[in-house]
Amino acid sequence: MTTTTEPLDVQPTPLALLLLGRESDPRSERGVDCPGDLPAASDPDLVERARAAKEKLGDKVFVLGHHYQRDEVIQFADVTGDSFKLARDAAARPEAEYIVFCGVHFMAESADILTSDDQAVILPDLAAGCSMADMATAEQVAECWDVLTEAGVADVTVPVSYMNSSADIKAFTGRHGGTICTSSNAKRALEWAFEQGEGRENKVLFLPDQHLGRNTAVRDMGFSLEDCVVYNPHKPNGGLTMEQLRDARMILWRGHCSVHGRFSLESVEDVRARIPGVNVLVHPECKHEVVAAADQVGSTEYIIKALEAAPAGSSWAIGTELNLVRRLAKAHPDKQIVFLDKTVCFCSTMNRIDLPHLVWTLESLADGKVVNRIQVDKETEHFAKLALERMLALP
């Protein structure tokens, strides 16, 4: 037996280099660079500096805060909400020169699509991406469409893309006659998609979150699990046979949310054992078995309103991002509100927007320097807006 100390000739993949911060992909949700010097996180003057810079900017700046943001950032938001609500709020403020989006990359893209050319949409940290959105690239989806064409089903397939997708994926959807959906209107979007075409039985290609697509089709629309197949972009033909593609009604992209995907059936069973009479309320991005075991299922806005309406003394286990759950628990001290999982889990990329990045952004703008601007090219914007307009036209 012989051994060798010579190094193995193993080359890192492009994705590995990207994650290591040694390469970048301008068309991806991931970012690795944030130019400029950030104030130290321990700087005791950060709050006052943010307040002073925002006051200096006045009506020129409009700060959007997603529900999953840290409290230290949310305190400076002019409006809070989910991704689409915030993008529409930005579009409704044409007098604001600067839209500072405290969220993630795809959200800032949507805001850029919906706002005017005179407005600059800014993301305080370019590394604030979305793992789910990253799971479907334009090249992968184009290859999937080729597979559907080869199977003879592309002409009866309508793409429906979740708001949590890149501008490229939204544009693909617009080009191919599809629509966008949110977690609130996914059922309406799917109903619309299945109604397209005269006298034919349509299919839906649902991007990029398999769980929202499956839960909506099965739980809300009466489809069976057998009506759904999962297309894996990392396998030839998506890991499916031509027959499977022809038989399926829902072709689900193999993507998921890294936060909501953590919740398990065991989490539900454990919290019911620990807290008698607890109401389990989860987001539809959770796995199907978690949604099936929950008492209520709904979007972020649904979760917020459900807890506002809940009676004092009631107990709730919430399956969504931890920043929001903690904020809700603080806002409703008369109710017992706990995180569904025992393991703490923030959205790591959403949490990249912190007070130092926000201060740096606001102070740069106050000095007349536009940083970290997010711009979608005109062709992509045109087709992405087409898909968004179809969603807005839904009854």
Which helices and strands appear, and what pairs or packs with what?
Layout: H1 14-19, H2 46-57, E1 61-66, H3 71-74, E2 79-81, H4 83-91, E3 98-102, H5 105-114, E4 120-122, H6 131-134, H7 138-150, E5 157-162, H8 167-175, E6 179-181, H9 186-195, E7 203-207, H10 210-220, E8 228-231, H11 242-247, E9 250-253, H12 265-274, E10 279-282, H13 288-293, E11 296-297, H14 300-309, E12 315-319, H15 322-331, E13 336-339, H16 355-366, H17 378-392
Parallel strand pairs: 1-2, 1-3, 3-4, 5-6, 5-7, 7-9, 8-9, 10-11, 10-12, 12-13
Helix pairs in contact: 2-16, 4-5, 8-17
Task: Describe it.
There is one protein chain. Helices cover 40% and strands 14% of the residues. It is α/β, with parallel strands linked by helices. The relative contact order is 0.15.
Short note summarizing the structure:
By secondary structure, the chain is of the alpha/beta class. It has helices at residues 14-19, 46-57, 71-74, 83-91, 105-114, 131-134, 138-150, 167-175, 186-195, 210-220, 242-247, 265-274, 288-293, 300-309, 322-331, 355-366, 378-392, and strands at residues 61-66, 79-81, 98-102, 120-122, 157-162, 179-181, 203-207, 228-231, 250-253, 279-282, 296-297, 315-319, 336-339.
State the main characteristics.
395 residues; alpha/beta; 13 strands; 4-stranded parallel β-sheet; 40% helix; 5-stranded parallel β-sheet
- What percentage of the residues does DSSP assign to strands (E)? 5-15%
Helix content percent band: 25-40%
How many DSSP helices? 17
Uncertain residue ranges: 1-34
Largest sheet: 5 strands, parallel
- Classify the secondary structure makeup into a structural class: alpha/beta
Q: What gap, in angstroms, lies between the N and C termini? A: 72 Å
Strand element count: 13
Order of helices and strands: HHEHEHEHEHHEHEHEHEHEHEHEHEHEHH
On the 0 to 100 scale, the average pLDDT is 89
Rg calculated over all Cα atoms = 22 Å
User: Order of strands in the sheet with the most strands?
Assistant: 6-5-7-9-8
